[in-house]
Recover the amino acids of this structure.
Protein backbone atom coordinates (compact mmCIF):
# COMPACT_ATOMS: atom_id res chain seq x y z
CA UNK A 1 0.00 0.00 0.00
CA UNK A 2 1.25 3.50 -0.79
CA UNK A 3 1.91 6.31 1.69
CA UNK A 4 -1.26 8.39 2.33
CA UNK A 5 -1.27 11.78 0.69
CA UNK A 6 -2.06 14.90 2.73
CA UNK A 7 -4.57 15.77 -0.01
CA UNK A 8 -6.58 12.54 0.34
CA UNK A 9 -10.32 13.17 0.76
CA UNK A 10 -10.56 10.14 3.06
CA UNK A 11 -10.76 11.07 6.78
CA UNK A 12 -7.74 10.16 8.92
CA UNK A 13 -8.93 7.77 11.64
CA UNK A 14 -6.05 8.50 14.07
CA UNK A 15 -6.40 12.26 13.82
CA UNK A 16 -10.19 11.97 14.04
CA UNK A 17 -9.93 9.92 17.24
CA UNK A 18 -7.53 12.43 18.84
CA UNK A 19 -9.72 15.36 17.92
CA UNK A 20 -12.79 13.63 19.33
CA UNK A 21 -11.00 12.90 22.61
CA UNK A 22 -10.05 16.54 23.06
CA UNK A 23 -13.26 18.11 21.78
CA UNK A 24 -15.61 15.79 23.70
CA UNK A 25 -13.81 16.37 27.01
CA UNK A 26 -16.15 16.74 30.00
CA UNK A 27 -14.40 19.93 31.20
CA UNK A 28 -15.17 22.48 28.48
CA UNK A 29 -13.72 25.35 30.55
CA UNK A 30 -10.29 23.72 30.73
CA UNK A 31 -10.40 23.03 27.00
CA UNK A 32 -11.26 26.66 26.23
CA UNK A 33 -8.45 27.83 28.53
CA UNK A 34 -5.95 25.54 26.75
CA UNK A 35 -7.07 26.77 23.34
CA UNK A 36 -6.91 30.41 24.39
CA UNK A 37 -3.44 29.94 25.95
CA UNK A 38 -2.15 28.19 22.86
CA UNK A 39 -3.67 30.75 20.53
CA UNK A 40 -1.85 33.76 21.93
CA UNK A 41 0.61 35.10 19.43
CA UNK A 42 2.37 38.37 18.83
CA UNK A 43 0.33 40.97 16.99
CA UNK A 44 2.06 42.86 14.20
CA UNK A 45 3.72 46.03 15.39
CA UNK A 46 2.16 49.36 14.55
CA UNK A 47 4.30 52.36 13.63
CA UNK A 48 3.66 53.80 17.09
CA UNK A 49 5.10 50.68 18.73
CA UNK A 50 8.21 50.98 16.58
CA UNK A 51 8.59 54.67 17.46
CA UNK A 52 8.12 53.94 21.15
CA UNK A 53 10.82 51.27 20.98
CA UNK A 54 13.26 53.59 19.18
CA UNK A 55 12.49 56.78 21.16
CA UNK A 56 15.12 56.31 23.92
CA UNK A 57 17.83 55.62 21.35
CA UNK A 58 16.77 58.62 19.28
CA UNK A 59 16.80 60.93 22.29
CA UNK A 60 20.25 59.69 23.30
CA UNK A 61 21.56 60.26 19.77
CA UNK A 62 20.06 63.77 19.67
CA UNK A 63 21.61 64.61 23.04
CA UNK A 64 24.99 63.32 21.88
CA UNK A 65 24.74 65.39 18.68
CA UNK A 66 23.84 68.47 20.73
CA UNK A 67 26.83 67.98 23.04
CA UNK A 68 29.21 67.49 20.10
CA UNK A 69 27.82 70.56 18.30
CA UNK A 70 28.22 72.64 21.46
CA UNK A 71 31.77 71.42 21.98
CA UNK A 72 32.67 72.23 18.37
CA UNK A 73 31.10 75.71 18.66
CA UNK A 74 33.09 76.46 21.81
CA UNK A 75 36.28 75.14 20.25
CA UNK A 76 35.74 77.24 17.09
CA UNK A 77 35.01 80.34 19.19
CA UNK A 78 38.22 79.93 21.21
CA UNK A 79 40.37 79.59 18.12
CA UNK A 80 39.25 83.01 16.80
CA UNK A 81 40.94 86.13 18.18
CA UNK A 82 39.06 88.13 20.78
CA UNK A 83 37.02 91.09 19.53
CA UNK A 84 39.13 93.62 21.48
CA UNK A 85 42.19 92.55 19.48
CA UNK A 86 40.33 93.13 16.23
CA UNK A 87 39.45 96.69 17.24
CA UNK A 88 35.72 96.07 17.60
CA UNK A 89 35.82 96.79 21.32
CA UNK A 90 38.16 99.26 22.97
CA UNK A 91 41.11 97.80 24.84
CA UNK A 92 41.87 98.58 28.49
CA UNK A 93 44.26 101.40 27.50
CA UNK A 94 41.53 103.23 25.59
CA UNK A 95 39.04 102.85 28.44
CA UNK A 96 41.61 104.14 30.98
CA UNK A 97 42.50 107.13 28.78
CA UNK A 98 38.80 107.99 28.36
CA UNK A 99 38.28 107.90 32.11
CA UNK A 100 41.36 110.08 32.81
CA UNK A 101 40.42 112.62 30.11
CA UNK A 102 36.85 112.79 31.39
CA UNK A 103 37.92 114.22 34.79
Amino acid sequence: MSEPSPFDPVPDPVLGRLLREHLDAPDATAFVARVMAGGRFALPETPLHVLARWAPRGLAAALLALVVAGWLAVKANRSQPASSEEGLLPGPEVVLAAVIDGQ
